[in-house]
Amino acid sequence: MLTKRIIPCLDIKDGRTVKGVNFINIRDAGDPVELGAAYAKQGADELVFLDISATNEQRKTLAHLVKEIARHINIPFTVGGGISSVADVAPLLEAGADKVSVNSSAVKNPKLIDELSKSFGSQCIVLAIDARKIDNQWTVHTHGGRNPTDKKLFTWAKEGQERGAGEILFTSMDHDGTKNGFANDPLEKLHRLLTIPIVASGGAGNMGHFIDAFLLGKADAALAASIFHFGEIKIPDLKLFLHERNINVRL
Amino acid sequence: MIQIINYGLGNLGSVQNMLKRINITSVIVKSPKDLVPEKIILPGVGSFDTGMQNLLNDGWIEALNEKVYKDKVPVLGICLGMQLMTNRSDEGHLAGLGWIDGEVLKFQGNGLKIPHMGWNIVRPSTEDVSILRSDKSELRFYFVHSYFVSVKNHSDQLGVTRYGNDFTSVFRRENIYGVQFHPEKSHKFGMMLLKNFASVKC
Fold it and tell me: Is B202 part of the annotated catalytic residue set?
């Protein structure tokens, strides 16, 4: 049986991880390569590297970094941030990334999803969606959640699937950072609506929240950042906790 | 030494990195004329017809057939590389390499998420575990695919995986091996499998 995936997310700026990282046995907590390798060793099922560099110039270092990551990490990883064309993606996949995620640029130009999936295959195109509830409607936001759009979560996710996305990474901005658990209701609705895998993101605060995301939210994978970085939840403990509660995970 | 075929599809770097980690020398071969009678890995990420078309355009097929049938070189297909070794695919119109009697079918709905993406179990289906040899009781590998191989002869099947139904996740006929998952992304089990392939006798 296919296992539920646990995915740490690393924010990268100018080739370094940002946000504090609190890890034993790490010499350089800012080094994405070393940090990623440590997570892989602990049993992370995949990794996501999100480039939040401000300018395209700084972003050019990304392909080089991806190459380094691929040299040292032998689990799948996704790279995202600022990708807006086929030309942006080719060097990242060539450098060894397994998947790329698109967000704001796909909202602006939905055909991008068709172009990317046609060029590289659906399996490596992740549609990341940031949304929050406004007037009882899950409203898609872009640019790191700063700009509300006229797109709604469920129709946009469905459109993304039809255009060829291979996976949806849904971040609830209402839950992100709260540590009160994932957005299980919309996750479950996405699950009923779509036939591609769904990654839950935003809100992880304790190990029970992952159980809820898998059982209530029916998520295929769960992503978190700070609780892993600060060592509040250790991946081997989480995997064991899930296993003991009959969630199928890779131990 | 292992030769990794570069036919314009697939994550060659990841395969080479993984081999490096287990101290196995490899070389990426860009042209069929550079092939030597040594082990071969046929990787691949992409669509069936693009894969076959690239093999045809670049003149790989004759060279590969010679290595596989005449020199009996052990060859390992990974993901699309495995699928190309069969006769045909639901995904395309071109004929496959036809090294293994079988076809490639699309996963069918019934609540199944497609692609089949993530870590799943491979159960050896014969006593001769061959490249699945391990001291672990459960083998987990990383999969990403929407189509799967169905072999005609059960004797060619080396491992099965359940996703909806059981499908052939590993096959072998003599010197021809194929795996649907990505050993280069499968951490410890991936290293084990590639080590096993590297120690297969020519």
Answer: no
